[in-house]
Amino acid sequence: MRVGVLTGGGDCPGLNAVIRAIVRKGVQEYGYDFTGFRDGWRGPLDNDTVRLDIPAVRGILPRGGTILGSSRTNPLKERDGIRRIQENLAELEVEALIVIGGEDTLGVAARLSGEYAVPCVGVPKTIDNDLSATDYTFGFDTAVGIATEAIDRLHTTAESHMRVLVCEVMGRHAGWIALHSGLAGGANVILIPEQRFDVEQVCAWVTSRFRASYAPIVVVAEGAMPKDGDMVLKDQTLDSFGHVRLSGVGEWLAKEIEKRTGNEARTTVLGHVQRGGTPSAFDRWLATRFGLHAIDCVRDGDFGTMVALRGTDIVRVPLADATARLKTVDPKLYEEVGVFFG
Amino acid sequence: MRVGVLTGGGDCPGLNAVIRAIVRKGVQEYGYDFTGFRDGWRGPLDNDTVRLDIPAVRGILPRGGTILGSSRTNPLKERDGIRRIQENLAELEVEALIVIGGEDTLGVAARLSGEYAVPCVGVPKTIDNDLSATDYTFGFDTAVGIATEAIDRLHTTAESHMRVLVCEVMGRHAGWIALHSGLAGGANVILIPEQRFDVEQVCAWVTSRFRASYAPIVVVAEGAMPKDGDMVLKDQTLDSFGHVRLSGVGEWLAKEIEKRTGNEARTTVLGHVQRGGTPSAFDRWLATRFGLHAIDCVRDGDFGTMVALRGTDIVRVPLADATARLKTVDPKLYEEVGVFFG
Amino acid sequence: MRVGVLTGGGDCPGLNAVIRAIVRKGVQEYGYDFTGFRDGWRGPLDNDTVRLDIPAVRGILPRGGTILGSSRTNPLKERDGIRRIQENLAELEVEALIVIGGEDTLGVAARLSGEYAVPCVGVPKTIDNDLSATDYTFGFDTAVGIATEAIDRLHTTAESHMRVLVCEVMGRHAGWIALHSGLAGGANVILIPEQRFDVEQVCAWVTSRFRASYAPIVVVAEGAMPKDGDMVLKDQTLDSFGHVRLSGVGEWLAKEIEKRTGNEARTTVLGHVQRGGTPSAFDRWLATRFGLHAIDCVRDGDFGTMVALRGTDIVRVPLADATARLKTVDPKLYEEVGVFFG
Amino acid sequence: MRVGVLTGGGDCPGLNAVIRAIVRKGVQEYGYDFTGFRDGWRGPLDNDTVRLDIPAVRGILPRGGTILGSSRTNPLKERDGIRRIQENLAELEVEALIVIGGEDTLGVAARLSGEYAVPCVGVPKTIDNDLSATDYTFGFDTAVGIATEAIDRLHTTAESHMRVLVCEVMGRHAGWIALHSGLAGGANVILIPEQRFDVEQVCAWVTSRFRASYAPIVVVAEGAMPKDGDMVLKDQTLDSFGHVRLSGVGEWLAKEIEKRTGNEARTTVLGHVQRGGTPSAFDRWLATRFGLHAIDCVRDGDFGTMVALRGTDIVRVPLADATARLKTVDPKLYEEVGVFFG
């Protein structure tokens, strides 16, 4: 039996760990052959493949990125996309496809599986942790660790100078990284996309913090937005979905705080640093187990499913469930964490 | 209302994060006063207390160790232990006691709560992750991260020299640290206390690894034991429970491998490095949430319970359940991981 | 004999290591007493002191920041500044003053020592490494390490996506951090304040890099400036010295690259993350030895001097030399490193 | 012109950085071709070569180990060793040889250069930092950083338990790693091979430390030796040079301390963890500059020389000087550091 593997969407530490686990178990225990597809869905579309055997996966466990390459190519938007994939898989004699990706990539897998009988197994991947149906996605723990370490370092400066320190972290639609790293780093304010913030409230927290102790640290997700009145027209941009966005929210907020409180403010924008480098031990554990269970799904002929974490178990869920809706931060959890604000 | 807090047993990153969360929420939201007891159960036995208010917990989130000190004092073994604790709590007007500890410390809390009506809430703590009733304990993720980083570094040497590298990690009765760090670090052999190992099998894995690729890395829990025939009398010691033990198993195994395979072997013994330093972001998150929920148990008058992690939720379980039996590695999980051996 | 100690200027990992070494050796070997002055020169100006003895310096070696606090107060600009300092030192019976600081702070010490017979010993401090007369200043190695780790992480993304990654690091007047971290991190372009850059040249390197291999990483010091024609009026700001500056050069450059090459570009701005947290082992070694030698200067009555690193030796140089001119990057060294551009 | 490159001796972070710099500059600026020899001197002996061009060195800067492999093969001890090397170099048309190694490897280069007219340039490498004629060797800073981080973590346990913590670090003949990491980590006792230690003195420091503050941390180089009377016959082994050695000095010392002071003691043996993994930013900087200057030596026809660090400059010294004697810790420096003992 020949199994195809592809990785789609943005970079995420742990992708290689999944690939390695799939191949090691598939070859050693089940005697499968593998075909790697290059650059996500572009690979099966263009019949662009990579050798994928045990030597190919040696030493990749701790490495960030993906040996298969990635892209955001969507075959549903390509002319004859589905048919070309079907033909290429048939030609290569690929009888099952393991698809490692986030919402978009898995969404395609769900439709291919459901409507076109392409036998897909999904593995959830996003540093943003916003996929439903799994407790965590790999890559998230690494990103939170990097952001937390940065916030830790900001405390030193906060202790010796009277400056507000704003740290912008990833998270366009979900505030998980901001919430976890802000809590773990002991931030004084955490702002997430799920809840529009009130600049005056932020300034009040900043001011009360100065009175109580040393300088405040504000963690803000890149997708966090001020309340309507706070933002003027020139601050806005439209993103690719046509939504109003505030690009550079960290820098914007620092300036507003300076203007309104009179305190100096400085910004750190972590950017892609959060999604690079070696995965954390947790993410390697999770990614490896996802890989081991994904190949078991193939062996069981259990297609249209996605592997998922539930507590300490790896379970199988319908692919369609995973991509049905974004997993955002529960208001109750945000409120629980709010005890540390100000 | 006045609430007492104590930390017992071995060192564990995250203890301070729990204490901080308890005090921050207890003071700010519920208006409680706190009494810190020094050195675990010795504190309430000897009426040895520490000031515990918001200034006392400032800045402690990222710090390892515990500001309250710890000990292995067991009041059940002290003359009049229970009575002295009851009297001291009464005198100090402490109406609830939050007990942060492992099996032994919580075992005392379970009996005090159950048999003597001392209102206790438990918070599970052990880097060994061997407490039942919770998915993970804080401190474990940090220990796994440290061990994984060490194993990562050993790979470099393994790649350029023909030496077997043995890495001894913590875990007297449960192999969780060995299993997680060995998997995350890409070890070629993982040995755990739950399953006696066969030195010949280890040597076979070592030899096959040399043939397939670069030098093997063997991760061994300190409590792992060879099969009976492998160990001769002079290798044995009796531990404090009267059990046969093999102290220095890493060094012992390295010598056996050298003797039997003719390959040089080198040992790393991480020791207490694994339980020190700042907690990982995951452990800070978990420890903080445990603290927030423990103080909620107090507010709800929900005594005799322990907070526990289930998936992404913090739940409450009976204290007695948590300490009823050690959570050891499931043979099926060990087998799942075995695909990477050799 | 009573010795005063103060720390001035910006935050810098290693300040506490210097203070600890001074006090440990001063008390244990010479029997001195110490007075800590709070917040740099503000301390002796306002007679604001801190207890400074062996218990006060316990455990501070690995901690960033300064237990004495810091400020940019300049007594030469204060009414009666010199006289107030002289009177306060006399009143406190402080017979020698150890001044830990950068260009400004040490400049004051040089004048107080030279013109007003205040017995000062200087210890050089700046993460920017731009002080003459010493091979390195402490704090610099830590900052370079943090920036290098960030650049390492950007490589992963650079490998899998076709995006230019711009990383803005500290360095207003000297490019040492950019040069060292850029080289150590394998950056493809390094831009420093010492040499105005040509945006077209940067774009040419970016384009050639894309052709040769994976996506380019551009490291830019915050004080780097484009050639005159490249920057239009609205991009400019005037800094506190009245110099034209380009604030947010990283973000500015990313936009220019996008505009001119058509490639997407993303920015990371490390900011104060670079000057916080625990000092590297190198900086602790250097800072500690500076402290040990500074107190020896006091014992020898060798005032008006600064301790400095020459090779592996700590030597003494005239304070005036150290602050005479900024140590900037030698064009030959920049050219040496240029072999890796593009 | 064709240039050969080899790496000999033990593993050391930074080897790949040297190789990359040599090839990048040699190809881009001077148009040279390169031949990589596999496994140190074994390569030119057995005519075992590796392709070495710009694609071969891509991405290797941050990787530990060496892409050329290494060995301790000594051609002076091989039959016809010199002649075979001369013939193989002639056959391959290799006109210059860059030799990256420690005392042994460079000693061969010195003799080949001096007595047999083989045009060699040396690059000093040893994590032990015991090569004369250079301020530092690359790999040392990385090893010190790893050991310091481990010692940092031990402090947490030392703070909360009454246990002596012994940390054994590398250094058979020179105590540089112990000295630097012990100082940077705030150890209370540092023991080095250069000076035999008195167990009673160590116990006195341990005991005084317990009185003054929290539990003591003892850093001991693997080559440190007790005074004659302290060690009994059964403790001794003979090393490959026929010298008396005490293998497992850390564990041995812990037991002696327990026996003599009655305090529990625990041991950490870092082992090969110290020489693995990615090089520090300092080591990458140094290794890269060594490589750039080594290829300049080739271009200048300056053979029989070694590149070396002096302050912030890279200079050239006779190969023979570098290997003439071991650079050990100066007793004055050890005494300087002694202020922190006890």
Q: Largest interface, counted with CB-CB under 8 A?
A: A-B, 39 and 39 residues
The poorly predicted ranges of chain A are none
- Percentage of helical residues of chain A? 25-40%
Summed up, the helix count of chain A is: 11
At CATH level 3, the topology of the largest domain in chain A is Rossmann fold
Indicate the multimeric state: homotetramer
Q: What is the radius of gyration of chain A? A: 22 Å
- Helix/sheet category of chain A: alpha/beta
Describe this structure in words.
4 copies of one chain form a homotetramer. Chain A is 39% helix and 18% strand. Chain A has helices spanning 15-30, 42-46, 81-92, 103-116, 140-160, 176-185, 199-212, 249-261, 281-299, 319-322, 331-337; strands at residues 2-7, 33-37, 49-51, 96-101, 120-124, 164-169, 189-191, 217-221, 237-238, 244-245, 265-269, 305-310, 313-318. A 7-stranded mixed β-sheet of chain A has the order 3-2-1-4-5-12-13, with helices on both faces. Chain A has a 4-stranded parallel β-sheet with strand order 7-8-6-11, with helices on both faces. Chain A has a two-stranded antiparallel sheet with strand order 9-10. In chain A, helix 5 crosses helix 6 (176-185) and helix 7 packs across helix 8. The longest helix of chain A has 21 residues, at 140-160. The model of chain A has no long low-confidence stretch (mean pLDDT 93). Chain A binds chain B through residues 24-25, 28-29, 58-59, 61-62, 135-136, 141, 144-145, 147-148, 152, 155, 180-181, 183-186, 213, 278, 280-282, 284-285, 288-289, 292, 310-312, 336, 339-340, and chain B through 24-25, 28-29, 58-59, 61-62, 135-136, 141, 144-145, 147-148, 152, 155, 180-181, 183-186, 213, 278, 280-282, 284-285, 288-289, 292, 310-312, 336, 339-340. Chains A, B, C, D: Keywords: Cytoplasm, Glycolysis, Kinase, Magnesium, Metal-binding, Transferase. Chains A, B, C, D: Mg(2+) binds at residue 103. Chains A, B, C, D: The record marks 125 as: Important for catalytic activity.
